[in-house]
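input
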Amino acid sequence: MDWFPIFLALGDAPALVVGGGAVALRKARQLLEAGCRVGVVAPRCDPEFQPLFSAGRVRWHAAGFEPEMVAGYRLVIAATDDPGLNRLVAASANRFGVLVNVVDDPALCGFIMPAVVDRSPLTIAIGTGGGAPILAREIKASLEALMPAALGRLAGFMGHWRAKVRSRISRPEARRRLWERVARGPVAEHLYAGREAEAHRLMAQMIEMASGAGADSPPTAGEVYIVGAGPGDPELLTMRALRLMQQADVVLHDRLVPPAILALVRREAARIDVGKRGGGAPGWPQQQIHQTMIRLAREGNRVLRLKGGDPLIFGRGGEEMEALARAGVAYQVVPGITAASGCAAYAGIPLTHRKYARSCVLVSGHDVEDPAYDWNRLGAPAQTIVFYMALGQIEAICRKLCDHGLAGTTPAALVASGTTHEQEIVRGTLATLADLAARRRPPSPALLIVGEVAGLSESLRWFHPDSAAAADLAAAAGNFEDRPDDRPAPGFGPAAMPSDLAAAQVE
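output
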């Protein structure tokens, strides 16, 4: 280890920046964030310094650098474009025993400035010894994406309760298990969602149980996560969705969720395929899904209800929310990129366009024979219509739209397996699409997009699935399904479920 990692308490400490350019300004701001009293030595300074000078936050000594100027400072940063001056600053700091950093010259540094992920009071520093700062920034960006913005709130909460836990729970192993449950469980989720009072209440309950006073109490209630898995591409998952997938105890998933996304669920989580695919495909009755979610949550499990697309757009998420609310079960909803947005984008179809479409309508396609369907509204000009679950109704949809005012030449596109490497697009018009689809026979799931914007797909299409990549993805999915470690955990398989639910389960 060439550099010893250390965090310095710099509150109100004097720090000197030598240089007046943009880099010096950035370093001065970093020192201010750490609470330092900052001085700057430079004959001239970037105009962006002026607000800091005017507010009295930074003191400017408008002169050339002299070695004695470093005396009395906790640390010094040389941020000039003059190598000779930077060497003088470093030598002066070493002479007076002051920590020194020379920007972009690790050989002259007594300390280095790492890339920082700030979730105060939690702070993560990433250093490469000054040799690869771009790599450090790339790692910082990855960590920023993975870590909830409210993680600092959890760190502060744990610090608040630390003394109480130590006084009530004497065994170190018991304390460790408690803190692991706090970091990974409902307490953290309450804090991330801003429910601090509930987090404190639950924490007090967990301490009572862990200290023995509540040994006979019922298990801590679980929670249900209703999560949208997006249209198919795993990279379109939200950060919150991925985090909850990684901490679930059991997942109830629809068949629309591809294996590549299921592979991102925590390995130890039990997986239950409820068979929902849309368009009337067989699966668990919705009431059985409600009952199972409620039962598993009441047993103390973190239940992931994983749905393709967005759970509140033709995903029956609203019904599940109502059932959980009536049962008094805690839940949260994580929206996903819905199929209309994701598939249209990957097909090169803008859903709205100033020239062609001033509005966009999302409708269900599997019940188009319903007399209540408002075909007159759908036949209005200058709008985009997106039909979900429409693969088996293309001929009827195209005919009815023509009967209610749209021209047979209106562009239409069918996007099958959208956003994945199996994506297939059938392009045509209302007059021709049904015959084209009958010949091509695209697989389900598929989305039908009607409107002038559909005609832009050929020229604006940017996503070109690669067959080799598709084969690799399929092989990876097969490997995932064959791993013995990913079998449902004991207690969640058909044998452990009521007979009616076991009979409905399709694995």
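quick obs: The CA atoms of residues 184 and 499 lie 32 Å apart.
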